[in-house]
Design brief:
The structure holds 3 protein chains of 3 kinds. Chain A is an all-alpha fold. Chain A is built from 11 helices and no strands. Chain A is globular. Chain A starts with a helix and ends in a 7-residue tail after the last helix. In chain A, about 55% of the residues are buried. Classes of the chains: A mainly alpha, B mainly alpha, C alpha/beta.
């Protein structure tokens, strides 16, 4: 297949992803409160955004929870995938089943059941209950992603490592993780995405002093989507894009193992 | 080695501890609730009852499950067809910007899905972007009614779930050893044969991973079908939402959720049986 | 790798908010139901910090408080029949009116309703009505003065209905001459059959995007809340709101104090603050919803006072009905609602 066709296909899919975002950004300059048609250019919404300090706090909360939840979920999910791949242990099939249940469970069921759990454990609702819940529903996504890569690894590598005297821990750290790196990264990205956008579970398990962005946005829709939100999303998008691109360009080229 | 047993013990314990508390306990709560009797005031009475599952034997619920199944299935299929070439091309790209390109896939999804869905609505509306462009170009003469139909729902679902197919596929294809492809070529296979008999089987775990992460959430999603489909029909997700929130019938809602989980579990098992290639490794590696 | 781990650990310790026993009040309200200035003014005057979080439906509020009574909210704002339900199930605290001197400013016409006789548990915050919304450019407004006109086959696939079981069934019940709070199973069944006949005319069910749909003329006819229509007319003056002949639903969103409230004194201070006429006027004008505060209403600009869309006259108001909790009949309503949606 020639290069043009290849790049065209990639480009088309990227356009598919970015088109609504571009539209969003355009609408953040739209001189209309509720209409979804173009009515003229304005910077009002960005001004409103600048004045709204609460929104910044809420967005920051979401980012905090997102980063932490994704990181811990990636850790536990990777360990879970590796354990299921390498070891035989009591309750392995139950573990499989639990991960599966976590993906299938509708958000509302998980939200309410976790809420009841926290009530029974006498935990105060807030940051910690939110974080624990987010980690929990992200774990299976990491596990599935990592596992699908594990199943293609060459088993002989572990044999060779063992022959050379490596303990399980060392082979985990030095061999498995580097080999799984793209899957781990993919898992982290998926988890972060899930966490940033989760509404229903978060609604039930968060407390009065910890509001997060998706809940804020979701509840605003009830009474009309404020264009200020378009401005917020545009700003967040611009920032994340900038950070990611800058980070990647600044890094020296990584040597592939 | 003792150190090995410690490592094995610790890692399994961590996973087990976490999942027992935050996954097993809540699931048991749901399971128990599904066997309780509904109570309008206290939400459930501590009385064993099969009435919830009996109520579900009503054929109208079968329609709901079937409808959701079709929607989720179609969505997964489209995601797979669109994602596979993309993930393949991306994974085989020999560029130092590969990671960057991967990030670029997911960044749009860090904006609120709600707002993105509204952006989709503004594209598909009667006076929206799509219709305006098509009308101006003269391709159509009356605005297309896409919004509030199943087509809009599928578009919305595919859009939201595409990265969940791309990322597992990418992770799996990335490690595909080109030696296999070269070997196949050397043995005289053409592109199609190489694809169907070498690449596809080798990337099958990635496909399975992607399908799991797309099909299952799609079955229980209700929000996007509601907004883009006009809330005129009931999918499994809406049904459960309804039972828990509007009807305050937690036992019935729990029962529907259990049935959904069971149905999906059965499907997964059947599929794995039918395709030996998709078998998970049950033999452990390097156990003492 | 190690550095990343340490960073994350440090970050997690830093990120969790410290729980200090400050002077705070936890308000749980609908979104866009208050302006930030008012909250700031409250903190300035009283020194009490406000933790303001929002929800989007009565159902989720109820489910959350039911599953975990210790959530810690001090003031919540449920709608009419949820006040009734929560009151009957002992989820709300009885209010000591002697601590709310500003209660006297409220409009008596909106007090002492069947969902909370004597207002022992709830204080009205905003009120709204449900009626017919029509784009006068496309339909003759005069022909649409009753709910029953929506059943006309000429409106095939054109209607927007609210995605709320009680709003939709109230409409059918009122067309059949019954009360919107009817608990008689046969009446509910008849309402369901009537609605089944309407389904071919229904294009979609929606609560959230009503404004933009009517402004952009994706839809030109349907049922909506008067607040939504009022705000929509600012951008599309062709829209009209009609109070149907058979009657209409009045929704009153009220402030209440849940059982698990942790800052009772501050809750009373907050509620009393909101009842102050100048404050009530401020929030009403800022958000565009009707205030139940009579003194505040009299202070409004003339244009708002005379706007019958937001403040219908006494005669029209007599046709209005509040929604009560239907108790055990709820499951019957839900069953038919599901049938309606599954068949659709």
């Amino acid at each position: 297949m020639n290069r043009l066709a290849r790049f065209s296909y990639l480009a088309v899919i990227y356009c598919f992803f970015y088109f609504p975002i571009v539209l969003l950004i355009i609408y953040s300059f739209n001189n209309s409160t509720y209409s979804l048609l173009w009515h003229g250019f304005t910077l009002d919404w960005y001004k409103q955004l600048g004045d709204d300090s609460d929104l910044a706090v809420v967005a920051l909360h979401s980012l905090e929870v997102g980063v932490l939840a994704a990181s811990f979920a990636t850790l536990i999910g990777t360990i879970a995938a590796t354990c299921m791949y390498r070891y035989r242990f009591f309750g392995k099939h139950l573990l499989h089943g639990l991960l599966f249940v976590l993906i299938v469970s509708p958000d509302i069921v998980m939200g309410i059941s976790l809420l009841i759990l926290f009530f029974l454990l006498h935990m105060r609702l807030g940051f910690w209950t939110l974080l624990l819940s987010h980690i929990t529903f992200c774990i299976p996504f990491v596990a599935v992603t990592v596992y699908s890569r594990l199943t293609g690894l060459d088993k002989n590598i572990f044999e060779a490592a063992r022959d050379l005297g490596a303990t399980d821990f060392i082979s985990f750290r030095r061999i498995i993780i580097p080999m799984l790196w793209p899957a781990i990264l993919a898992g982290w990205l998926l988890s972060f995405t899930l966490s940033l956008d989760d509404v229903i579970i978060s609604f039930f398990v968060t407390g009065p002093d910890f509001q997060i962005l998706p809940l804020y946005i979701y509840s605003l829709v009830r009474l009309g989507l404020k264009p200020e939100l378009n401005a917020l999303c545009s700003v967040m998008f611009a920032i994340t894009l900038f950070i990611v691109v800058a980070f990647q360009l600044a890094l020296p080229r990584k040597v592939n193992q | 080695m003792k150190v090995d047993r410690l490592f094995k013990g610790t890692t399994i314990s961590i996973v087990w501890l976490w999942l027992s508390v935050f996954a097993l306990l809540p699931t048991l709560l749901v399971l128990i609730t599904s066997f309780l009797k509904n109570d309008p005031v206290d939400l459930f009475r501590w009385q064993f009852s099969l009435q919830n599952y009996q109520a579900l034997l009503n054929p109208i619920y079968f329609r709901v499950f079937w409808h959701s199944f079709c929607v989720a299935g179609l969505c997964s299929l489209i995601c797979l067809v669109l994602s596979y070439p993309f993930a393949y091309l991306l994974a085989r790209l020999d560029s130092k910007y590969k990671n960057l390109l991967l990030f670029l896939v997911i960044i749009p999804f860090w904006t609120s899905s709600l707002i993105r869905t509204y952006a989709i609505i503004s594209i598909l509306k009667a006076k929206g972007l799509l219709n305006s462009v098509l009308l101006t170009l003269g391709i159509i003469h009356h605005p297309l009614t896409i919004l509030y139909t199943s087509t809009a729902v599928i578009i919305g679902l595919v859009y939201s779930l595409l990265p969940f197919m791309i990322l597992p596929l990418y992770a799996n294809i990335e490690k595909l050893d080109t030696q296999f492809i070269d070997a196949a070529r050397d043995l005289g296979a053409n592109t199609l044969t190489t694809f169907t008999r070498v690449i596809l089987p080798l990337t099958f775990p990635g496909i399975m991973g992607g399908i799991i992460l797309v099909f299952l959430p799609a079955m229980s999603m209700f929000y996007i079908p509601d907004i883009l489909g006009g809330a005129k029909s009931l999918l499994v997700g809406n049904l459960i939402q309804n039972e828990f929130l509007s009807a305050n019938n937690w036992p019935l809602g729990s029962a529907v959720s259990m049935v959904l989980t069971l149905a999906m579990g059965v499907l997964l098992l059947l599929y794995r049986r039918a395709n030996k290639i998709g078998q998970y490794h049950d033999e452990p590696i390097g156990e003492i | 790798m190690r550095r990343v781990c340490f960073f994350i650990l440090w970050f997690s310790l830093f990120a969790s908010p410290a729980y200090t026993a400050e002077n705070i009040v936890n308000i749980y309200n609908w979104s866009n139901y208050i302006s930030n200035d008012v909250l700031k003014e409250f903190t300035q005057e009283t020194g009490i910090k406000v933790n303001y979080t929002t929800y989007d439906s009565n159902e989720t509020l109820y489910a959350k408080l039911k599953a975990n009574p210790r959530t810690g909210y001090d003031v919540i704002v449920p709608s009419t029949y949820y006040v009734d339900r929560m009151r009957q199930q002992g989820m709300l605290q009885a209010l000591d009116k002697s601590r709310l001197p500003n209660f006297k400013h409220l409009n008596p016409a909106l007090l002492n309703k069947s969902y909370d006789p004597g207002n022992h548990y709830s204080i009205p915050y905003f009120w709204s009505t449900t009626g017919i919304v029509v784009n006068s450019k496309y339909h003759a407004v005069q022909r649409l003065q009753a709910w029953s006109t929506l059943w006309n086959p000429v409106y095939r696939n054109q209607l927007l209905l609210l995605d709320d079981v009680h709003e939709v069934f109230s409409m059918a019940l009122m067309v059949l001459g019954f009360s919107p709070n009817d608990t008689h199973p046969e009446h509910i069944r008849l309402a369901y059959l009537k609605l089944k006949q309407l389904m071919p005319n229904v294009r979609l069910f929606n609560n959230d995007g009503v404004k933009s749909l009517f402004i952009d003329e994706d839809l030109t006819l349907g049922m909506a809340w008067n607040g939504d229509v009022y705000q929509a007319t600012q951008e599309n003056p062709a829209l009209r709101f009609i109070y149907p002949k058979e009657g209409f639903v009045i929704s009153i969103d009220s402030m209440a104090i849940p059982i698990g409230a942790s800052h009772l004194n501050n809750a009373y201070t907050f509620i009393n603050f909101i009842l102050r006429p100048d404050i009530a006027k401020k929030i009403s004008l800022a958000t565009g919803f009707a205030t139940p505060n009579l003194t505040a209403y009299k202070m409004m600009p003339k244009a708002t006072l005379n706007n019958s869309m937001i403040y219908p006259d006494k005669k029209t108001l007599q046709r209005g009905r509040v929604q009560d909790d239907v108790g055990a009949a709820e499951s019957i309503y839900q069953h038919y609602w599901e049938l309606l949606k599954i068949g659709g």
